[in-house]
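Notebook entry, structure prediction.
Reason for the run: the old model in the group folder had no record of what sequence produced it. Starting over properly, with the input documented here first.
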Amino acid sequence: MKVLFVGGTGNISTAVSRLVVEKGVDLYHLNRGKRKVELKGVKTIIADISDAKAAAAALEGHSWDAVVNWIGFTPDDMQRDIALFSGRTKQYIFISSASVYQKPLVHPSVTESTPLCNPFWDYSNNKILSEECLNKAYREHGFPITIVRPSLTYDTVFPVAIGSWNDFTLVDRIRRGGKIIVHGDGTSLWTVTHSDDFAKGFAGLLGNPQTLGHAFHITSDEILTWNQIYSILANAAGAEPKLVHIPSDFIAAIDAWQRGNLHGDKAVSAIFDNTKIKTFVPSFKATIPFHEGIRRTIAWFEADKSRMRVVDDTNKNMDRIIAAYEKGFPK
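New structure, fully documented this time:
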């Protein structure tokens, strides 16, 4: 099977790349070649997908059993890809997001039939519009789509709501005894998924003609509170967490970006029903619990000092939110 990943060296796509190569897939990456990730067996085509003419020239003469776009975000990206890959691939997989599901949820159990509606986050709304664009192309022209919606998936990032993503700021702060923010009272339920587990489900969709026209989310079945997520992270870092619980509305009033991140994704309990992915990929089972996976992530950061970046602005922003909130309490 000959497959093209647009992107392919990110937090999720690197794990998927490793697994599908192990399974014998003839894998190509189309990217700008700027991220130095060693992936044995992957062939790289250097081009910027945002330059449609250059990408078309770089891909001249190729046809694919499957194309996966890991870095598509808008309907314009989808229109470009429909033009670029129509008649040249048997399957086009769009990486959407589980944040497209209804916010606020009217039922905490999320299936692929949960309505798509997120008025809080432009990122999610653009993913919804992208899915609509692809579904229209599937209905009207038979463009062979499969849609995949990851939720909070981690390997080389920290799966938290506030404090870090692809840097070491939060772990450093915890180890220094600093206060860390947990939105709400920390008891809402969430799911984090290791990229290696996600890869198991994704690999079963790749090249599978029965998935055309379908959407899937792929998550762990481990359900944790946000208090547990932050406490397990702190334990893996070798320190006790100093949690400060702050209402999401208060956080968003000070840091406007958090309106999307919290109200548009992480503030309300969500339990992902994985029946559909398990039906189409019967072998899929997530086996990496968070307490194990997060230790791997910390070890990955610590294996290269250049990864252990501490972002001063992130610390200052957390300090600013905590100070504003604590002013409301009597001394």
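Summary: The chain has two domains: 2-153+193-218, 155-191+222-271+288-326.
The old model has been moved to the deprecated folder.
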